[in-house]
Amino acid sequence: MPPEMSPTQLQAWRALYRADTLLFTHLDNTLRTRLKMTYFEHEVLRALGDGPLRMAKLAEEMMISRSGATRIVGKLEDKDGWVIRRNTPEDRRATWAELTEDGRKALDAARPVVEAVVSTFFADHVSNADLHGASRILDVLADANPNDDGFDCGLE
C-alpha cells in the first residue's frame, strides 16, 4: 500500500487540481463560445502548428492512445476540415496528420483567445519568478509520471 499523503502534499495536490480544473474550464468554455472549438481540439492544432506529425507521435505528444488520436484527427478532418491525413511513399505504414489552411486560420484565431484567458486567469496573478518555479515543479511531475497503463503506484 502506498504511504499516506502528508497534509502539505494533500493541500498542494488539491490546489493544483483546483487551479487546473478552473483554468481548463475557462479555456474550454471560451473557445467553444467564440470559435466552436474545444480546448483539446486547440491543443491538437497547436501540436501540428510546427508541421506534420506521424499519428503515433501526435498520440504521444497529446498523451492519448493511438486510437484516440485517430478519432480526434478524423473529427477535425471531417467536421472542420482543419486537419488532413496523408501517407508518404517512403513509409506507407505511417500516417501523418497536418494542418490545412483552414486549420492554420483556426489556430491563429484561437491564439489571442487562449492568451487572454491564460493571462486573465493565471499569468497575471503570479510573478515571473513563481512562474519559473511552477514550470520547474510541473516538469518534474510530468517527467516522473509515464504515460502508460503499466505504471505501478503501489496499489494491490
TrEMBL record:
**Locate the HTH marR-type domain: which residues?**
9-143
Q: InterPro entries, per this entry?
A: HTH_MarR-typ, MarR/SlyA-like, WH-like_DNA-bd_sf, WH_DNA-bd_sf
User: Can you tell which superkingdom this protein's organism belongs to?
Assistant: Bacteria
| Gene Ontology molecular function | DNA-binding transcription factor activity
What Pfam families does the entry give?
MarR_2 (PF12802)
Q: Which Gene Ontology terms describe the biological processes this protein takes part in? A: response to stress
Q: What is this protein called?
A: MarR family transcriptional regulator
